[in-house]
Design goal:
mainly alpha; Serine Threonine Protein Phosphatase 5, Tetratricopeptide repeat; cell outer membrane; membrane; globular; two-stranded antiparallel ribbon; 6 strands; about 45% helix
């Protein structure tokens, strides 16, 4: 497999060239033309299995910097070494100070890998014995591209609005590995059309249950489709995608079986966690190190004392309430797709489609596995007057630090019932992010704009 690793290095250099976010000397590097370009099905599958590129370092960092899952003290904020973390925490108008932006670079690197695999696969005529493997490889490539486009859209494009989506600038939709192609921004409508097209095609090709655990299957494609449909406000389609995913992957952990007093209650690297539909993780974020990040005590108090998430997710370090509930089973954050999210999405869609009893029945299935055994009283329409509000509250409590909150804020801010003004206080100064503020769209990296001429997002 040595040629594959040589090729991966060459592809990394290509990604640096197509994503102008590194020093000039890197931009001038040319890959050795004698390096092997993957051409066999085995080689292309190996490219898609490159874990350090395709599964780790997902593009959720800016979303975490800006969300209301946490806060830091003024002293901690002053010590942060990266301007994107310091400025992102305050939703500043100038965020990057000319530095490269991992959320952009890593996503387009995954897209480059996916496009390279798709082009290579298009040149193969697999024999019948390899057709299933070819289908899986193509499905994986389409999944990774659609998943990366979706992540980029949550950061660098406006929230979807049917009235303006055809005019609102979206993201560059790289559909080939041609590094010479000049990037342009498609509309938000075109961006979501491509996301749906990629994921629908992936869902048709992927297996029900991948033989390699970290590879995506149909359930993963359906879950990202459900996320996209939530952003579009298409709750019927989101429900259909979610129910399809749950048919294949619906297991839940009974938190009574966890050692909630352990430093990290969940299995390391997500191994053996039955709730993980698709494994992915965030790169290290210094602002969210356990010794720095603090969880809002008001959020903490929304967890009932018999709710086991209270102990599984949080602990005190001195007087700091901090987070330990990553599905990575470690200090860094999981961005995995999970069945817990599927149940919450299904419940929300049912509530929005005027099926409150079914919505609460779905929510109860999740909550009864989160409470001390025998203590949970099922929710009914009699004891839960605001069904949708309760579901969204549980979504907030279940999915914090999973890279989901920012995209939820963006869509929920359109509804006055759920719109929220975010607040930070640093060095005695108050900073606010009102609902639907332009700063819910992060700026495109400075050096990308300079090199490509892409129109910048207003702040």
């Amino acid at each position: 497999m040595k040629p594959i690793y040589l090729y991966v290095w060459a592809l990394c250099l290509l990604s640096l060239a197509v994503l102008p976010s590194c020093e000039k000397e890197f931009l001038e590097l040319k890959p050795d033309k004698t390096l092997v370009v993957p051409s066999t099905l085995e080689d292309l599958q190996a490219l898609l299995d490159h874990g350090a590129v395709m599964y780790t370092g997902t593009s959720h960092a800016l979303a975490e910097f800006g969300s209301d899952d946490y806060y830091v003290s003024s002293a901690t904020w002053q010590l942060l070494p990266r301007p994107e973390e310091k400025n992102g925490y305050l939703w500043a108008r100038e965020v990057y100070e000319g530095r490269p932006v991992n959320d952009w670079d890593y996503a387009y690197r995954r897209i480059l890998y996916a496009n390279t695999a798709l082009e290579g696969l298009s040149k193969l005529q697999p024999p019948p014995a390899q057709q299933e493997a070819w289908n899986q490889a193509r499905g994986m490539a389409l999944f990774h591209r659609g998943w990366a486009f979706f992540q980029l859209a949550q950061l660098f494009a406006k929230p979807y609005d049917a009235a303006t989506a055809a005019q609102d600038p979206g993201i560059p939709l790289r559909l080939s590995p041609d590094v010479e192609a000049v990037p342009t921004r498609q509309s938000v409508a075109e961006t979501y059309r491509q996301i749906l097209e990629d994921l629908q095609a992936a869902e048709a090709l992927l297996p029900d249950h991948p033989i390699v655990p970290h590879r995506p299957g149909k359930a993963a494609a359906r879950q990202v489709l459900a996320r996209a449909y939530l952003q579009l406000g298409d709750f019927a389609q989101a429900l259909d995608a979610t129910e399809g995913a749950l048919q294949l992957s619906g297991d839940l952990i009974d938190y009574n079986a966890l050692d909630t007093s352990a430093p990290f209650p969940f299995p390391p690297d997500g191994e053996g966690n039955p709730e993980i539909v698709f494994y992915s993780s965030q790169f290290a974020l210094e602002i969210l190190y356990a010794g720095r990040v603090q969880v809002d005590s008001l959020l903490y108090r929304t967890y009932d004392t018999l709710d086991l998430r209270r102990k599984a997710f949080f602990y005190y370090e001195g007087d700091k309430l901090t987070f330990k509930g990553s599905f990575e089973g470690a200090a860094h954050l999981s961005t995995a797709l999970t069945t817990g999210e599927l149940y919450l999405t299904k419940a929300e869609c049912l509530a929005r489609l005027d099926q409150p009893e079914e919505a609460l029945h779905t929510l109860n299935r999740l909550l009864e596995r989160r409470y001390v055994a025998g203590s949970f009283a099922p929710l009914t329409t009699d004891n839960t007057p605001d069904v949708l509000g309760r579901i969204l509250e549980e979504r907030r409590k279940e999915l914090l630090f999973r890279g989901v909150r920012w995209q939820d804020l963006r869509r929920l801010n359109k509804d006055p019932r759920f719109a929220k003004t975010l607040v930070r206080v640093i060095e005695g100064r108050r900073y606010e992010l009102p609902p639907n503020d332009p700063r819910y769209v992060w700026p495109i990296p400075d050096n990308v704009v300079q090199a490509s001429g892409l129109p910048q997002n207003p702040r």
